[in-house]
Amino acid sequence: MILSTTPTIEGRPATKYHGVVTGEAILGANIFRDLFAGIRDIVGGRAGSYETVLREARQQALDELAAEAQRLGANAVVGIDLDYEVLGQGGSMLMVSASGTAVTVS
């Protein structure tokens, strides 16, 4: 499965459009990550635990998007857009959503 943020795949024209596909991942931020991220805010540096959670959520959303495209008979998804949102009371949850157009490319 080819996944691309571009509207086309160079040298591989779309022969069939299957429609819009999406994938979402919602993950809870745990209290220890919040604590360590707060310390990082004070002393500086990267919040590695949050980066890991964000990376995992993004991959889950893309995996779900690819699975939906495959169910439709597509072999690629083009024009992928990734969105990130904080949800829940006090921003306790992170949502990553991915959407794109499922296509068959030659």
Short description:
By secondary structure, the chain is an alpha+beta fold. The protein contains 2 helices and 4 strands. The protein is elongated, with a radius of gyration of 17 Å.
Textual characterization of the structure:
The protein has helices spanning about 30-45, 50-70; strands at about 1-5, 15-30, 75-85, 95-105. The chain contains two helices and four strands. The chain is an alpha+beta fold. It is elongated, with a radius of gyration of 17 Å. The longest helix is centred in the middle third of the chain and has 24 residues, at about 50-70. This is UPF0145 protein DFR51_0069. Belongs to the UPF0145 family.
Task: Please describe the structure with a list of short key phrases separated by commas or semicolons.
single chain, 106 residues, alpha+beta, 4-stranded mixed sheet, 2 helices, elongated, UPF0145 protein DFR51_0069, UPF0145_dom_sf, UPF0145_YbjQ-like
Helix % is 25-40%
Q: Which structural class do the helices and strands define? A: alpha+beta
Roughly how many Å apart are the termini? Answer: 12 Å
Instruction: Give the beta-strand count.
Output: 4
Q: Approximately how much beta-strand content do the residues carry? A: 35-45%
Summed over residues and divided by their number, the pLDDT gives a mean of: 85
Q: Which stretches are poorly predicted, pLDDT < 50 over at least 5 residues?
A: none
Question: Please, how many helices?
Answer: 2
Radius of gyration: 17 Å
The strand order across the widest sheet is 1-3-4-2
Order of helices and strands: EEHHEE
Task: Give the overall shape.
Answer: elongated
Major sheet size, sense and barrel closure:
4 strands, mixed
